[in-house]
Design a protein that fits this description.
The structure is a homotetramer. The first copy, chain A, is mainly alpha-helical and about 220 residues long. Chain A contains 12 helices and no strands. Chain A starts with 6 loop residues before the first helix and ends with a helix. Chain B binds a DNA duplex (21 and 21 nucleotides) through helix 1 and helix 3.
Chain lengths: ~220, ~220, ~220, ~220
DNA sequence: AATGAATGAGATTTCATTCAT
DNA sequence: AATGAATGAAATCTCATTCAT
């Protein structure tokens, strides 16, 4: 808030944010390790190498930790997806492809944490739930914009671009949700390529099909 | 099973299956009501208007109840989807459409129960989990067959029909998973129409596009 | 009570006693089978092939069943031990031996039921407990009398005949209590012989040792 | 274990072992108080003046508590019996006497806890049961050795020394098992004297009877 | 006389949260 | 700032007992 900070306060805040990170990482690690989303505060403390009590200094409750883990993943989207889009250059179709790939890769790297959103109902309160939903929707925005650009440039056919964007998010999540099924035949790269081809085939305007031939064959 | 049943035994069995149904319905109702997939045995007993102990006469454990609720939904797929396909006539593309519609409608009628599959990891044991996965995969089969027929007849382009089938299942589930999002702009019929159009646009062979114009405009 | 009974009443009583026997046998069977003394009323009903409700027509409570099973074993002592003594002829030392053998054999035939006495504390009320203790003490009486006779005839040395009698009862019980230990080296016949030899060696008057040589070498 | 301990860790361990002792004592106290070997976790918590949850910090399960109580008694044997033997000097017969006395006195001091072994079947798992049996058998060893020494020196007659040792253990347990009977006529000292006299009369070699006259008259 | 469905209290166990140190 | 012992409510499951049929 204030631009000039008491150095002690700054140090404290730095330590605090470091602690938060340490705890969040431990939580993510624990989830990937146990494969279960049922993580007790005691187990989290043990994994993070701190005491239970300390967790409550940084997070008000278990729900807060859960919320933070989820937010953490969502934040990763906010970082990675725009970066991937920027890297993809000006072509909106390739930007869509890059965005979807980035989504999938983030999810692949935090599979169990990503699934946490699908359990919120129980643990989290209405307010937190609402917050997550807003963040998730915001997360689709770069994708939606790339799609809109493609439509504006005539490279994509104009049809339900909102729905399409959300479908792509869902298919990215599906890599975590139905990993047990997809992993039988695909690895993450194959998955991205196949799903992208499938989705784009219905979207790319006929006169541009040749140009995106590399994307359209899964 | 046997042709001649002791009437008492028959009556008892009828009562027993009625009880199971009552409990399963209560479980489903409770989920829809609380919006939560976490149902305690106490709460279930209260909702069903019976005692805790009685549940254990019909289901060996909480896992059994959960498994039964899930199986119940999956069984509904097994009934409704083939029926819808049969009603749709011989055209494989229209059969795909009918199958997807049936999926979505079953899920719409049991939204929270349908989500139970996405929590299995915690509650259910490995065996039960495996069982559910098998059932789910089996559930996609009619859809996969209709797609294969469409490809064989040249009405659909041959591309990853397995993946397509599973994607359609996922999009049906998405109606429950992301209901809070989709319901802002779509009702169940609109959702089915839009998703179907989107998926089919990438699948229908060019020379048949005109024939399925009604399906292709979401 | 009344000497002349209504035939219906007599028939009913006969049926009732038959039922009791059926239930008691089932209880004993169940205990030997599961090896555990924790027998639920449901399990007992199943084993006996009757309904739970019916047990309560013949026994007021679970404690009553337990008490009856215990009494049943004790009654068997009351029958078998005097019979064995009678068969053993006039010699009091041999009568002692016969009594101990009978004790051990009854216990061997109902090992787990015999152990029930050692659990009474929990389940049974004070009154029932008292009743069992009295019966158990009464059960030692034939043995005590045979010992007393032996002392009176000068064949046994006079020393703590009460304690000796109870010790013999205990050693018989020990066959059930510590069966896991004794069965490593002895069968029931060997056990009886060895224990008897050990006990009698301290009891038989020196001038009669030769006469009972067969009993004194375990 | 390690020579230099972190004082905090050492203090914590001390506190922890103090808690264990407190809980074990409470368990023993509860058993003596209620006269019952069945102790619920709630009751144990109440008796110890702690919460239920805390018990689970020190013992993994109810079985663990039970096992610990039993082990506690058995450990007392391991301490007291060899000590008593050592105090008794070189004479093996007097060492046998001292060992038996020590057994009986330990049992007298923890009567109900000592009986716990006779309930193991129900509560404890197979492994724990096995463990207890081994410990019990190990417990007889000092007695067995003293007997063997006596035989080797020709002071005791060679006959079933294994069985004799176990019988003496049983007679010690009998003080708890049949306390209600023996207490009518004997106190613990009288019991020890009488039982010892009885057992030794059959064991002491004729030429040494005079030497042990004090032990042989109960 | 007989059934067995139904009850509900009670048992064990887990775990989010607090608080004295 | 940090600890971790302690709490106690809640969850699952069992089983003696009752009662309508």
């Amino acid at each position: 808030m204030s631009e000039i900070l008491d150095p002690d306060v700054a140090a404290r805040e730095a330590r605090a944010s470091q602690r938060s990170r340490q705890l969040l990482d431990a939580a993510a690690r624990l989830m990937e390790k146990t494969g279960s989303e049922a993580v007790s505060m005691q187990a989290l403390a043990a994994e993070a190498g701190v005491s239970v009590g300390l967790i409550y200094r940084y997070f008000g409750s278990k729900d807060d930790v859960l919320l933070a883990v989820i937010t953490d993943v969502l934040t990763q989207f906010e970082v990675e997806v725009p970066a991937a889009i920027a890297d993809a250059g000006d072509d909106p179709v390739r930007r869509v492809g890059a965005a979807f790939g980035a989504y999938c890769r983030v999810i692949d790297s935090r599979r169990h944490a990503a699934l946490l959103t699908y359990r919120e109902s129980n643990a989290l309160g209405h307010e937190a739930r609402q917050r997550i939903k807003e963040l998730e929707v915001a997360t689709v925005d770069p994708l939606r914009r790339a799609l809109a650009d493609g439509i504006a440039e005539g490279r994509l056919v104009a049809q339900h671009s909102d729905l399409v964007a959300y479908n792509l998010l869902l298919l990215a999540h599906a890599w975590a949700l139905k990993h047990w099924y997809f992993e039988r035949t695909l690895d993450i790269d194959g998955y991205i390529r196949a799903q992208l081809a499938l989705s784009l085939r219905g979207l790319v305007a006929p006169e541009f099909v040749a140009e995106y031939a590399d994307l359209l064959v899964g």
